[in-house]
Amino acid sequence: MLTLAARWSCRRPWLVIAAWTALFLIALVGAARIGDVLTGSLGRPDPTSDSAQVARIADVVPGRSGQQLLVVIENTDSDAFREDQDTYVQRLGARLDAVPGVSSVVDAADALRGEPGFADPGGLRILSVSLSSSDSEEAMDMVEPVRAATSEIDRPAGTRVDVTGGPAVNHDIVATGEQDTRRAELLALPLTAVALVLAFGAFGAVLVPLLVGALSVVVALGALYFLHDTTGLFLNVFSQTIASMMGLAVGIDYSLIMVTRFRENLGARRDPALAAHGTVLTAGRTVVYSGLTVAISMAALLVPDSLLLRSLGITGILTVGTAVLLSVTLVPAILTLAGERINAPQWLSRPMLRRVDARVRFWERFARRVMRRPVLGALCLGVLLTVLALPMLAMQVGTPGAEVLPERAESRQGAESLQRAGMAGATSPLDVAVDTGREGGFYDPQAVIAVDELTREILQIDGVGAVVGPTTGPESIQTADYAAVYSTGEAARYSELGALANQTVATGGRHVVLVVFPDALPTTESTRALTEAIRAKAADLGGGPLSSVLVGGQAQEALELFDDAWSGFPVAIGVTLVASFLLLAAALRSLLLPLKAVLLNLTSVLASFGILVMVFQWGWLGEFFAPTTFGATTQLDFLVPILLFAVVFGLSMDYELFLMTRIQEFHHGGANTEDATARALGRTAPLITWAAAIMISVFAAFVLVPTPYMKQLGLPLAVSIAIDATLVRMVLVPAFMKLAGEWNWWMPSWLTRALPRLPDEHGGTEMPLGATPPIPPNGRHVDAGAP
Question: pTM of the prediction?
């Protein structure tokens, strides 16, 4: 395949460039529309799950037929509303009620005021806007019309209005994620350009990696859009972030490898076409296998039964695959046409090229120093990496909420207003669906009494702030009064009870839906504890007139989707480790080297987890990295460690492959393990260092944007890549190679025969990965050695 790619790219460069140009223009259409198909939700619940069943029951409750938004109106001047503000709230409620897609509007603050778990909201009003649709995507589409309606009525002085709630948070996660991803891309390009100029010393050589990085992002996003359009592929907003991060990072890195090899070939006075051809057969082969190792890490996310993880896995595979294809086809085509112009300007590039040998000698001497005291080096770094990794034991993860948004996001500001008023739980209620077993069953006096008893028991649970149900009217009404009123059909005559019944009793009277509000901003574990406590209370009451009790609502749905994804994470880890071990065993023909690679890569991953906890959970580096979060929540977005593992492990394996294939090459050439390691490190260390610097530049750009989850991804990625490319590759690898000696190359004969040999660039299977390609039939030798 590489021979074919080399032949086409070098013989017909303009055709290859034209084909990629056409593909880019097509992909640009989809990439420009990717924001229209992204979602902030965690997936689609299983139709048989508790939350899905409760949602179907809630759909037939007349007063709350769909999802809900909260419109928070705050008096910023005092703790009490003025008369003109009260009038404004009434006018706003009437305007919202007229918005197409809104089924009802009620004053939720009035309903919750005085409940035992909530403070008096004082200068705060909450309009609960029930939507006609229960679909999360359609609910997100309603956020902008509702916000537009709030701005149509003149606000009295000192009045602040914010739209929040689950659909609004998801809407803002998508909107801010799209904006800040583009901002990070614009920051990353100049940062990487500076790193490339320092690496190449030539402006001409800089343009190719930047072009490939940008094309990788656009083509991957375009492919995702068209996949969604044709197959309905679920796409979380993280997909855009991962495509941008990985597209820029690996696209620039892989083309860096290609350009570096091409410049070496040109230095041997070969014509551009032949130099580019040799580049594909050597550096291109390393790029392909490096891309394969990253793709393995991302493909492992396809294994768990989670729409969310599968969409992220597909995103990673598409992005890396695009970068590899661009590197082995478009890059050599451009290099063939560029020729010596790739080194322009000569006054800048020549001095840097002359210093190449000095850099090689420096790193070779460094490796020999490490191998003189391998135990000391391994122990010192082992202790350091262990200290960095230990905080991961305190990691707490959960589902994302308004706290993952930048402070400018309206839904976050509304949630903060609720938190200040002691009503943070209003954004994340649980729905408790009670089944009486038959149509009209609730109107039986015994059923009303049982529902009221369950309501009172739930109110006694720690963490419950308020419950809204058919029997939560004025305190003056006793349980027997509720039973009498509902059993005789007189509830409609009492305005308060009629409104409660309309919001909580399903059409037909078989089901009742109690709305349970937590007394604080919930975490995943507090939601789990509350759900289990409600189920326990229902079980304690026994059967009687209530045949079943189910817990659902947005918070419970998020908990179920979290469990599906997080429980599959260990499986994804196992698949990644095994697949990577087998690939490296086949490539390196060794058992010890793949085992060492897997363990060292895990140290980089665990260090990234420790950094994540120290900075974003413990807040050690202040507000720049961990902006103030309301509610004092300490849980991290559970997607961040999953993505950190997949990306860090895959990229670390990249560097491992760069170094180990060159060690293997020298060892097969007759050098002993120590000499092969020193010479290989001398040749690859500059490349690995600059490749890491470029990746760090990309990830640092995501640290500089306001969105917290992008900071949580960017900072650990940047630090872990720096650790892996320096401490791990430059110290731990040579120390290990020295200690293991010739045992590094041991493999049982039966396993040697069982494992397939990876094909060489001419379609054979005998040449070790990274070895010098043979002289072609025309008798002209192509440059040797993968980077």
Answer: 0.84
